[in-house]
Design brief:
Helices cover 37% and strands 12% of the residues. By secondary structure, it is α+β, with helices and mostly antiparallel strands. A hairpin with a 6-residue loop joins β3 (31-33) and β4. It is elongated.
Length: 156
């Protein structure tokens, strides 16, 4: 049959509308107080709004999708690299770091897992040399950055 709104020849859902038009024009989602965020929002499932439902039940799927989309890296490789910090052994929250700072280079030898503290220290000028020294001692091909103080030393 033909939808009376979009004029497409498709299966009719209700009120002579296709499913898409029915959802857009006639369907009103029920409002609830979300169990998690305590805000009045549209019901999604299990007493939660769609954002909370995704956070609780779909977070691993979302993370896997983002790893593929943003890092262009296989989920198993990502989990292997980020299993623990290579410097201190912390294993709760691990960041992915590219040794050459090129996010297009996803060669496993260019990727290391660092805890948030060591990752922040690596990007902080005051601690960068120390972290690079530790990485080189552990056998990683980490090129030490040029010390800006040497480059801009006043000539006397």
């Amino acid at each position: 049959m033909v939808c009376k709104n979009c004029q497409e020849d498709t299966e009719i859902h209700a009120k002579s509308l296709c499913y898409r038009c029915y959802r857009k024009l006639s369907w009103k989602p029920s409002k609830i107080i979300c169990k998690r965020c305590k805000e009045e929002k549209s019901y999604h499932g299990r007493g939660l709004c769609s954002g909370c439902y995704s956070s609780v039940f779909q977070i691993e799927n979302v993370k896997a999708y983002n790893r593929r989309k943003l890092h262009h890296i296989d989920n198993t490789l990502y989990q292997k690299i980020t299993s623990q910090c290579i410097l201190c052994g912390f294993d709760k929250i691990i960041d992915l770091h590219h040794l050459d700072h090129n996010h297009e280079n996803n060669n496993p030898s260019n990727l290391v897992g660092l805890c948030p503290n060591h990752h922040k220290m690596l990007h902080h000028r005051s601690f960068q040399q120390d972290i690079y020294t530790q990485l080189i001692k552990k056998g990683y091909d980490a090129k030490k950055p040029i010390d800006p103080d040497i480059l801009f030393k006043k000539q006397e």
